[in-house]
Amino acid sequence: MILKSQVEWALHCCAILAGLPEGRYLSTKALAEFHGVPKEYLSKALQSLSQAGLVHTTLGPSGGYRLAGTPAELTFLDIVEAVEGKARTFVCNNIRANNPCRPQGYCESGACAVARVMWEADEAWRDKLRSVRLSDLIDTLAKEIPAELWKSSFEWVLERAG
Amino acid sequence: MILKSQVEWALHCCAILAGLPEGRYLSTKALAEFHGVPKEYLSKALQSLSQAGLVHTTLGPSGGYRLAGTPAELTFLDIVEAVEGKARTFVCNNIRANNPCRPQGYCESGACAVARVMWEADEAWRDKLRSVRLSDLIDTLAKEIPAELWKSSFEWVLERAG
DNA sequence: CAAATAGGGATATCTATTATCCGTAATAAC
DNA sequence: GTTATTACGGATAATAGATATCCCTATTTG
Ligand code: SF4
Ligand code: SF4
């Protein structure tokens, strides 16, 4: 059970977009080149972000993406769920229904204890992701990334931002 | 990103095995029939439990599986990890290494902030699973399952336990 | 010895992920 | 207006992983 690589891509892209000046847009092409991933496939991840309303887009030359809100309004969970979906990671196949001792017409009263525990764990995962904002990530990155690299990356992006 | 159905199967099988009297064993065949799942494939899940040391096995007629310890010593995490593996759900493809601005020979100092957050969320999921013991599940099931069904299932199992 | 079992290897099938390609509509620059 | 560039969506192919089956072996019970 492994998250799609698009999740990592989307998170990194949002981190880049967070540094974009007001009103500017960055294209799929630039984001793909910066991260060294296939443009067409990254495009699907960005479209997921767009459909979830996390980013705004414009068409045409100098078009591309920018965050829909401030980095403080965007959580890891928003981004992860936009790409990975909101479905729970444990699906109940209701195998108890095959129990040979089960009385005819016995109707389960909702999900059993097994499923509930698994879903609680799922929620714990989501709670953690919900508690970290994109702005928190930027703060950490700014501290950890060498100032020179941070600056040159920023300039690289600005050169290509429409 | 969805957990294997074997996870559900393994959890249910452990719940059944927890009710087994000391020294008795229950076969793959019986467990598969009880849950209505393919015997050969369920066998793989049970082998995973065996390899993880969670259950003991014996061969021959009247052979099968029993818990290696008490239900209180076994957590959800033990069972889930035995079947699903201990690998983290977020894998870092190190796409920052493709950054065109990255200085030659620049060596990353461990995983970046993105990966660390995702791994913390993964840990939160595992912490939750670690906090629930098999004995807790049995307690809940005993409360929720109709006494009659509980009893007949128990008898069904005992008839087939070696 | 005969029957039943766990275990493991090989293999097939199905599904989801990963990736590419192409056509369309919209937009900006010229 | 024309052209270049872009996001978007549909179709499709390639790959990997999950699901499932089959068969052989060693071991144990009776
Ligand atoms: S026992 Fe729980 S997890 Fe298993 S099939 Fe029933 S509801 Fe689903
Ligand atoms: S930035 Fe983090 S998640 Fe992304 S490639 Fe680097 S270490 Fe991995």
From TrEMBL, chains A, B:
InterPro entries: TR_Rrf2-type_CS, Tscrpt_reg_Rrf2, WH-like_DNA-bd_sf, WH_DNA-bd_sf
Pfam families assigned to the protein according to its UniProt record, in alphabetical order: Rrf2 (PF02082)
Molecular function terms from GO: DNA-binding transcription factor activity
PROSITE patterns the record matches: HTH_RRF2_1 (PS01332), HTH_RRF2_2 (PS51197)
Gene3D superfamilies: Winged helix-like DNA-binding domain superfamily/Winged helix DNA-binding domain
GO CC entries: cytosol
Transmembrane segments annotated in the record for this chain: none
PANTHER family (alphabetical): TRANSCRIPTIONAL REGULATOR-RELATED, WINGED HELIX-TURN-HELIX TRANSCRIPTIONAL REGULATOR, RRF2 FAMILY
NCBIfam families: rrf2_super
Protein name: Rrf2 family transcriptional regulator
Organism lineage string: Bacteria, Pseudomonadati, Pseudomonadota, Alphaproteobacteria, Hyphomicrobiales
